[in-house]
Amino acid sequence: MAKISLRDKFSEFSEHWTPKVIAEINDYQFKLVKIAGDFVWHEHEETDEAFIVIEGSMRIEFEDYPTVEISEGEMYVVPRGVRHKPCAKEECRVMLVEPKGTVNTGASPGDLTAPNDDWV
Amino acid sequence: MAKISLRDKFSEFSEHWTPKVIAEINDYQFKLVKIAGDFVWHEHEETDEAFIVIEGSMRIEFEDYPTVEISEGEMYVVPRGVRHKPCAKEECRVMLVEPKGTVNTGASPGDLTAPNDDWV
């Protein structure tokens, strides 16, 4: 029952591509992630995924759609099953909203697969 | 598959206490609401509710807990079943995240009950 400061939570980690859970409603989680460079192509077979840019700018590339650029104060929903690749030229701070248990690399596990349910 | 600007969406309505849906993931919705003054005491029997302050400051009063003040860049989760009253001295812009179908006045319908699933 404590309020959550996004700025404070972002200050508690520095790694890139490792989503940190900051809050939960029912079986959904709010995660903060710092991104820089290119992520891996992947899709989430079981869920849509919301990206909300808190600071900076990022791009989401798609196989069959034009690349989307989202900046601070903008959000984007990647539909379930849609293959995508997040990337950012410079460090970008993002909040993700998705069901508990969603793995960052979806159906493409690899070196960038982060621990799940990792709270900060 | 279009990006969503919170600022643009907020510019499309001026009423207070009428949440407007801007995005959906699975069966959850992201809603923007402008609040000012006092809302009604209510609880949501079936769900937790996330408040994310986008601009300004607001308070959430509780019957059995201290009042919480949340400002821009802060969020708060009201657990299911917890009776609460949102309020704001000056207009505050908030994003709510909750399951589709959640009514703004929860178990206390009245004059401030807003249309549900009202997109902007």
Q: How would you describe what is shown here?
A:
The structure is a homodimer of 120-residue chains. Chain A has one domain: Jelly Rolls. The first copy, chain A, is 4% helix and 48% strand. Chain A contains one helix and eight strands. In chain A, strands 2, 3, 4, 5, 6, 7 and 8 form a seven-stranded antiparallel sheet that branches. The radius of gyration of chain A is 13 Å and the shape is globular. The mean pLDDT of chain A is 97. The interface between A and B is medium-sized, with 32 and 32 residues.
Short summary:
By secondary structure, chain A is mainly beta.
**Largest sheet of chain A, described in full?**
7 strands, antiparallel
Q: What do we call the CATH homologous superfamily of chain A? A: Jelly Rolls
> What oligomeric assembly is this protein in?
homodimer
Largest interface chains and counts: A-B, 32 and 32 residues
Unreliable runs of chain A, pLDDT <50, ≥5 residues? none
Number of helical stretches of at least 4 residues of chain A: 1
Radius of gyration of chain A: 13 Å
Cα end-to-end separation of chain A: 15 Å
Helix/strand/pairing category of chain A: mainly beta
Strand content of chain A: over 45%
Order of helices and strands of chain A: EHEEEEEEE
Tally of separate domains of chain A:
1
> How many strand units of chain A?
8
* Helical content of chain A (DSSP H or I, runs of 4+): under 10%
Secondary structure elements and their pairing?
The structure is a homodimer of 120-residue chains.
Chain A: E1 4-5, H1 6-10, E2 20-25, E3 28-38, E4 49-55, E5 57-62, E6 68-71, E7 74-78, E8 84-99
Antiparallel strand pairs in A: 2-3, 3-8, 4-7, 4-8, 5-6, 5-8
